[in-house]
Amino acid sequence: MSRIFEELDRRSTSIGEISLRRRLEPTLRVDVFEVKIGEDGLMSSLITDGERAVATLGLAATSNTEMDVLVGGLGLGYTAGAALVDPRVRSLRVVDALAPVIDWHRRRLVPLDPSLVDDDRCELVLRDFFELARTMFDFGHGPTMFDAILLDIDHSPRHLLDPANADFYEPPGVQRLARSILPGGVFSLWSNDEPDARYLGVLQESFERAGAEVVTFANPLTGSDTSSTVYVATT
To answer: At residue 2, does pLDDT exceed 80?
Structure first.
């Protein structure tokens, strides 16, 4: 039987102390992996529908083939893992600013199966996604334009992990983003908040089409539904 609680890693980062924990959920009798900043929960392996929907809804909105895809935010890897299921994806770059998170995947501490590090199409990159966006995604190698950019970092366009990210969600930042996506491509964003009419309007000014879809899924702990928003914008 699994241990009731185990802290797999804890380190200091630029946004606070981050930890990876595994605990036995007593009501469901399953292992749950959790990422926390301090004592604030950031993500959990128990509910991953929203993270997966960023990839599935985003990639479903483009008919492009042989796709180069960029994922902002690694976390436990569910967005990237869902993207790799799509056979059109020929390359996937996953950007995360926190070295411990990338290290968890390389040490196979996270529960994602199959592991991202076992897929030759996938590259884990230690960079700040928002700084890269300001440079039109100049990595110094490889593509600078993508068929899909899938983002799951901030809690929402208004509820940010770092105030410095705010310019990404404003018109100049969205215009740069749109110029980084190939014709027919897509931008997809997860948000924990209800649809934001102002942000949706900013997307609609720079993309050919943009919408916000409320994704509802069962919460096994509360027995009720939980909702999040996925913005999808296409060139």
So the answer is: no
